[in-house]
Amino acid sequence: MTSLAVTKRYLPWVVAAALFMEQLDATIVNTAIPSIAASFDVTPLSLKSVVSSYILSLAVGIPISGWMADRFGTRRVFSIAIIVFTIASVLCGLAVNPAMMVAARLLQGLGGAMMMPVGRLAIIRTFHKSELLGAMNFVIIPALIGPLLGPTVGGLIVHWFSWRYIFLINVPVGIIALFLVYKYMPDHVSEHKRPLDVLGLILFSSGTALLSWLLEVFGEHTLAPSTALAALGVSLGLLVAYAIHASDAQFPLLRLGLFRIRTFRISVLGGFVARMGFGGLPFLLPLLYQVGMGLPAWKSGLLMMPSAIAAMGMKLFSQRLLKRFGYRQILVVNTVCIGLTIATFSLVDSGTPLPAIVALGFMQGFFASMQFSSMNSLAYADIDAKDSSMASTMSSSFQQLSTSFGLAVGSLVAGWYLGNVVQTDRAMVTNALHHALLTLGLITAASSLLFWRLKPNDGDSISRGVVAG
Question: How far are the Cα atoms of 212, 322, 463 from residue 381, in angstroms, in the given order?
């Protein structure tokens, strides 16, 4: 077997393993907040910054990761990302006060920010477009199952061990990942080393960081409406300022001109809207299971597992389905299917048979996996090799924002229907959450209209190996 064949065989697993570690840490800490607060002798609410600091670091770090990969090479940057992430994990596990924890989480987020776009970039530059879908199937799995498994794994670790092991468990994983990176990851360096757009970095990163923070605290009513609106105005103003700057800059941080490419534009923006619908599920389903149906946390966590299993199994079918039906037909129909599945969760209550809930979770994971695989791979269908780094960075930046938007929309919709409902009245809570799920299902299904703008042969270079003439 040639060295390239070996690289192609193991690289998707290497990237997926590192991304799983990063995605898991984004959600696993939520379960441990009460235990961490008790250890530091502070209130759980005061530790909100432990979660938000990680999100802020991702928002700031992702935009610069593509430039770093072009300048220093994918292997070196990805290795540094794993080293930074692992060291920060140790510091999190050794933290003795909230300030040290927040500082370590900021560092951890910066390491995680470099993993996502650089890992994808290594995949894109290693595989031919006709091979890209199969490779990307591995890379999307962490994004799907990380948020689902995080609360479950975190709860089990906190229950049986100390909260510190949530972070320290990353050490052996990081060491193994680092070894595999040096062994199997190619070192792609761009021939055209563009200068760093410092002003663009300041404008875009500060704008997205502020917007991500607002979405993270959204629904908790910890900010006065006037303060929230002012912060929103500042964040949008910074992003508009970046768009104006990027239109004139010779080497912009993110080249917005890529949105003129139809497949890239529809994949990124259509995916952004779609995630606003189904992105709230990791927030709403645990509420339905635990608060509405009165299930214990461990049982609620286990009910999220079928989605993860289906997401992993879907990679066996996605290539054949996309080759048979094409991106346009798959994305239009599959988005509606996700919406219908989310809406069907509104029928789940304490009287629903367990096998039916498991089957519904399996269907949701199946369709979600198909959606992620399709949207993420379509983004690169018409991207030239010289623009792959820029496309990967832009796609990752918008996906990070869409994750925050999805959770915020889920929180907003749930808060709207819950209103003044007494949390101890399970029937009323369940009814309110049913309405919230119906609303999210409708939003998701409606987002399928965005994919109608695709042409029947869009994405054929990936799904069918057809080179555009």
Answer: 29, 13, 9
pLDDT of residue 2: 55
DSSP 37-89: HHHHTS-GGGGHHHHHHHHHHHHHHHHHHHHHHHHH-HHHHHHHHHHHHHHHH
User: pLDDT confidence of 334, banded at 50, 70, 90?
Assistant: very high
Cα within 13 Å of Cα(342), Cβ side: 33
| C-alpha angle 277-279-285 in degrees, rounded to nearest 5 | 100
**Most confident stretch, 34-38, 196-200, 318-322:** 196-200
For residues 113 and 62, give the distance between their C-alpha atoms in angstroms, rounded to a whole number: 5
What is the token pair recorded at 221?
Answer: 């009513």
191: DSSP letter: S
Task: Specify the pLDDT at position 467.
Answer: 56
**Which residues lie closer than 8 Å to 447 by C-beta, 6 or more apart?**
270, 273, 274, 276, 277, 335, 339
Amino acid letter, residue 98: P
Predicted confidence band of residue 341 (pLDDT cuts 50, 70, 90): very high
CB 256 within 8 A of CB 243: yes
pLDDT tens digits, one per residue of 215-229: 776 655 566 778 878
Interaxial angle between packed helices 98-126 and 74-94, expressed in degrees from 0 to 180 and rounded to the nearest 10: 160
Cβ–Cβ under 8 Å, residues 79 and 150: no
Name the DSSP class of 367. Answer: H
Residue 426: what residue type? R
Residues 6+ away with beta carbon under 8 Å from 401: 59, 208, 211, 212, 272
DSSP letters, 392-453, are HHHHHHHHHHHHHHHHHHHHHHHHHHHTT--TT-HHHHHHHHHHHHHHHHHHHHHGGGGGGG
pLDDT in tens, 227-242: 878 888 999 999 999 9
